[in-house]
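seq:
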Amino acid sequence: MSDQRIGVVMITWQRRDEALAAVQRLRELPERPRVVVVDNGSADGTAEAIRSAYPDVEVVALTENKGAVGRNIGIERLSTPYVAFCDDDTWWEPGSLAAAADALDRHPRLALVNARIVVEPSGADDPIVAELRDSPVPGPDWMPGPALGSFLAGASVVRREAFDQAGGFSDRLWLGGEEELLATDLLSAGWELCYLEDLVVHHRASVLRDATHRRRVGLRNTLWFTWMRRPMRPAVRRTLFLARTVPRDRISALAVADALRGLPWLVNARNPRPAIIEARLAALDEAQRRSTARRYVG
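struct:
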């Protein structure tokens, strides 16, 4: 019997073989979740291959790469109260989806849970796990794990009600650090996010990725988020920190130029998070400055 509480949305682009393997792992989970695959305009036959091999899996074939917005499109195809995200190079450990749904059942103000990420083939924790486990963000006493100020989309399960209320992932940010904006909007709306050690996602990083492009977009998105949601003084401090620490190369320069081109839109979109939320998340600035897992050096 499938767990009717939870579905899975997987986004993919130009990784047919990895996407097929990821879908197979999802179909083998004991929770037997309904799976929606959103193909972001692949030209390698990904959508056709998945439909042929797994006719019980819904495939949404987009004509362009919409990045993280593909997850928004996938969620619209599901009716489950909880939705797990999955990338084509990650997979959920059996039992983790049910455990996530149990936690969300028990805590109705909990919007999202983030799993522990295990790097394959080494089996070691991803470097970001220590930061999640030791999160400095204060949270209410009822939280089942450390409170978070952001999350990793490919290792998270979200409450659909909260996701819809916050508007999902921004179509402006595309892909790369898009979680920070959604996390802030969830917290500002009164929801909570937490890390749960017992939930496990495995990640075997695909070699089919453009790390240079991802660094450019990630830095642009960090600047956009900073000036969209941080009050003036913290925004200035974070911008100056980035100016001191990112590589002084062509990719960083292009990222800054991209960010500046969005200035007219950014001015209209600026809505600093409430003072109570800014105070809760202020400790993240120092944690991010010390982070070894958050460096724009790809």
